[in-house]
């Protein structure tokens, strides 16, 4: 389950993919498979996939316990060819983030 809380060591990788119409579900399936592989890495916490209503974007919101764990996850996925596999589906815009502020009702 995602943890959205400031003042933690948790690193969130947010990757926004732009995909051709009709390719959204194929990318979601690929990323879901990659998440199952990432789950094997110590320090991996969660993955959440979001689809845009217009069918042209997918957002991957994945969390690791800290920056070192995020690097281990990336290296593991890259060694399995899953990072390069993303390129088959569209253009990616990845970044690593930490929560700066939250507000609840």
Description:
The protein has helices at residues 24-38, 67-79, 82-85; strands at residues 11-18, 44-51, 57-64, 91-97. The protein starts with 10 loop residues before the first strand and ends in an 8-residue tail after the last strand. The chain is α+β, with helices and mostly antiparallel strands and 105 residues long. Helices cover 30% and strands 30% of the residues. The longest helix has 15 residues, at 24-38. It has one domain: Alpha-Beta Plaits.
Number of domains: 1
Second rung of CATH, namely the architecture: 2-Layer Sandwich
Mean pLDDT across all residues, rounded?
95
Low-confidence stretches: none
Which structural category fits the helices and strands?
A: alpha+beta
Q: Which strand-content bin applies to the residues?
A: 25-35%
CATH topology description: Alpha-Beta Plaits
| Helix residue percentage | 25-40%
| Radius of gyration using CA atoms only | 14 Å
Order of helices and strands: EHEEHHE
CATH class, named Alpha Beta
The main sheet comes to: 4 strands, antiparallel
Number of helices: 3
The counted number of beta strands is 4
Strand order of the main beta sheet, please?
Answer: 2-3-1-4
Q: End-to-end span in angstroms?
A: 20 Å
